[in-house]
Amino acid sequence: xxxxxxxxxxxxxxxxxxxxxxxxxxxxxxxxxxxxxxxxxxxxxxxxxxxxxxxxxxxxxxxxxxxxxxxxxxxxxxxxxxxxxxxxxxxxxxxxxxxxxxxxxxxxxxxxxxxxxxxxxxxxxxxxxxxxxxxxxxxx
Length: 140
Prior knowledge:
Layout: H1 5-8, H2 16-27, E1 31-33, E2 40-46, H3 50-60, E3 69-71, E4 75-79, H4 84-92, H5 100-106, H6 109-118, H7 131-137
Antiparallel strand pairs: 1-2, 2-4, 3-4
Helix pairs in contact: 2-6
């Protein structure tokens, strides 16, 4: 019997890049939507940032449920498939007094860069980084 892709994805953990994009997005403009065990990440940015939305979409790979599309209010975005990781992250981001020490332990330079890009303080251009710099961005 073949399993539906939306169910199979739940057994795949995000790789370090995917996790940092998820974490940085939640620190920035990302939003968790859905009920427990059905949570997903919603990513939306101004339409002028379509390239950045596509960068996130490409990084998240199989976790992205559908291709980015225009949204109300001059936004473009997409949602991920539901995944247990989002229930875990919901607990970390439960309220404005979230466990900053837990977030700090999880955050790597790439996640920080995504966060800063989301709030408009930085622009990511992966082509500007060498392979060694990309590896360093994921280091502990």
